[in-house]
Amino acid sequence: xxxxxxxxxxxxxxxxxxAAWHALQSGGSVLDAVEKxxxxxxxxxxxxTVGFGGSPDETGETTxxxxxxxxNSMEVGAVADLRRIKNAIGVARAVMERTEHTLLVGESxxxxxxxxxxxxxxxxTNESLNVFSQWLKGNCQPNYRKNVSPDPSTSCGPYGPKAxxxxxxxxxxxxxxxxx
Amino acid sequence: xxxMIAMDKDGHMAAGTSTNGLSHKVxxxxxxxxIIGAGAYADSSAGAAAxxxxxxxxxxxxxxxxxxxxxxxxxxxxxxxxSAISRIKRHYSDFFGAIICANTTGHYGAACxxxxxxxxxxxxVADSESDTAVLKSVPC
Lengths: 180, 140
Description:
The complex is a heterodimer. Chain A is built from 5 helices and 6 strands. Chain A has helices at 14-25, 30-44, 88-98, 106-115, 126-137, and strands at residues 6-10, 64-70, 76-82, 103-105, 148-149, 160-161. Chain A is elongated, with a radius of gyration of 19 Å. Helix content of chain B is 19%, strand content 36%. In chain B, β3 (40-43) and β4 (47-53) form a beta hairpin. Chains A and B meet through β1, α1, α2, β2 and β3 of A and β1, β2, β3, β4 and α1 of B. β1 (6-10) of chain A pairs antiparallel with β7 (120-127) of chain B, so a sheet runs across the interface.
């Protein structure tokens, strides 16, 4: 296909594609298209793998990662381990346009976002709380720890280092509703 | 996770990602999505790519950067995507992942690694021909 302009995105997230396409057709830039498209997915909580209320960590908190890149200027803005801010792609764009840095992370990224006018709010939902509760009830399985004590394949933490390291079998518990 | 590429009629490109990562991750864990060249990469002189899957594995291979560089050297988008997946597969044969690629002329493609939970990868495309979002898929 050579039918420019073009929007393409991973997974069957139709509303995100439509939002990006609308941005382009309305005279927006390619950066606007990517930002609008990803932001749509964040609000829609696409597949539970984007935005607030999904993929709770070991403590039950949802944290967000996002990045945007300008293919002309090679400018990039990115945020990782962002807490309490729903519009992660918007913060990533703010990193690109309002700092000379590339990547901000964690609590400091959240403070930056608040200073730039993004609203801080709890990213937990009943759904993410339920996922977290079920995980705790299931002895914290699946679990990404290794070579720690107590045995992470059967027990919850807190964990400490295990004296003798065992051979890791390399099995990963990624599924279609838990991915980057 | 969503990974997205946008290209205007003049060939200007942008790419982006947004994700809440893996369920039950260790607090502080960050995946490939915000890592430039891993989750996505764009260079209007060569192409753009966006990856999705197990970021702990994929970020070690910078698959989006690799795919763009392959397109810069003449590979078509599907071949570039397949090569980026193959590079990871050499070391992690059962990794969960997929990638989309687009070159400067607006040609696009996708590839994925076949595992029990991923035998076909779905992605969305909108262009001036369709004027709307169209579901596409590629067998892994």
